Amino acid sequence: MALRAALIRHLRVPVQTVSPAGRVSQPSVANSLFGSIRFMSSHDDHLSKEDVADRVLSVVKSFPKVDPSKVTPDVHFQSDLGLDSLDNVEILMALEEEFKLEIPDKEADKIDSCKLAIEYIHNHPMAS
Amino acid sequence: MSLASTAAYAARRAAQRERVRILYRRALKDTLNWAVHRHLFYEDADNLRARFEVNRGVEDPDTIDRLIVDGEAQYNKWRHPDPYIVPWAPGGSKFTRNPTPPEGIEIIYNYGREDND
């Protein structure tokens, strides 16, 4: 009984307090140390533009037909990276899976470059 | 026949390309619905891509139209009956579940305190 209490005390995870206005400072450090921050409502976790850009770039870099050294936030999928329109569709699907989005077909046709993708995802209210 | 007016020809080809892209997108999502495990999905996605690549070099717009119609018929035949839709999207489980309340309405959290207290 005392052993159990000692163990539980040893394994206690520190609780993060979140200010009601916005996110805790240095969220990336917090994420690496304590796991993901828990928000009390589902509308507090608007992603910052750097987060979106980092994740979009990592998705594009891990695409097998893409050379990772050429990927910058301004790159155009078809003209700079030498991809196909079908590859564009595949990248978009990977981005949808990464950010748990559902992009309508007409909008998805127009997203042609990293810059457009980052803008669209950043402005989407349900990106996570 | 369509080679004379190149603007109309280019417009027709562009419309066909858009149809092909939308068809490929829907077919890929459908493949993910059927093959949930990633290793199976990657194989099936490669097969789907190979089927699209076979018809890559076709130039005649009528043949392309026929191929697109065939492809859409095949897609309709293989559609999953219970596709995965993101919950907040139309058709998902959370769609219009809790609409935002109208403006100017406030909830007063007095936890049931009566006026006499």
TrEMBL record, chain A:
Carrier of the growing fatty acid chain in fatty acid biosynthesis. May be involved in the synthesis of short and medium chain fatty acids. Accessory and non-catalytic subunit of the mitochondrial membrane respiratory chain NADH dehydrogenase (Complex I), which functions in the transfer of electrons from NADH to the respiratory chain. It holds the Pfam family PP-binding. It is found in: Mitochondrion. One of its GO terms (cellular component) is mitochondrion. Complex I is composed of at least 49 different subunits. Its main location: mitochondrion. Coiled coil: none annotated. Belongs to the acyl carrier protein (ACP) family. This is Acyl carrier protein. PROSITE patterns: CARRIER. Residues 50-125 form the Carrier domain. Keywords: Electron transport, Fatty acid biosynthesis, Fatty acid metabolism, Lipid biosynthesis, Lipid metabolism, Mitochondrion, Phosphopantetheine, Phosphoprotein, Respiratory chain, Transit peptide, Transport. Gene3D superfamilies: ACP-like. PANTHER family: ACYL CARRIER PROTEIN (PTHR20863), ACYL CARRIER PROTEIN, MITOCHONDRIAL (PTHR20863:SF28). GO terms for molecular function: acyl binding; acyl carrier activity. It comes from Linum tenue. NCBIfam families: acyl_carrier, PRK00982.1-2. The lineage of its organism: Eukaryota, Viridiplantae, Streptophyta, Embryophyta, Tracheophyta. Pathway: Lipid metabolism; fatty acid biosynthesis. InterPro entries: ACP, ACP-like_sf, PP-bd_ACP.
Automatic annotation (TrEMBL), chain B:
GO terms for cellular component: mitochondrial inner membrane. InterPro entries: Complex1_LYR_dom, Complex1_LYR_NDUFB9_LYRM3, NDUFB9. It is a peripheral membrane protein. GO terms for biological process: mitochondrial electron transport, NADH to ubiquinone. Residues 19-74 form the Complex 1 LYR protein domain. It is found in: Mitochondrion inner membrane. Keywords: Acetylation, Electron transport, Membrane, Mitochondrion, Mitochondrion inner membrane, Phosphoprotein, Respiratory chain, Transport. Its main location: mitochondrion. The keyword Electron transport applies. The keyword Manganese does not apply. Belongs to the complex I LYR family. Accessory subunit of the mitochondrial membrane respiratory chain NADH dehydrogenase (Complex I), that is believed to be not involved in catalysis. Complex I functions in the transfer of electrons from NADH to the respiratory chain. The immediate electron acceptor for the enzyme is believed to be ubiquinone. Mammalian complex I is composed of 45 different subunits. This is NADH dehydrogenase [ubiquinone] 1 beta subcomplex subunit 9.
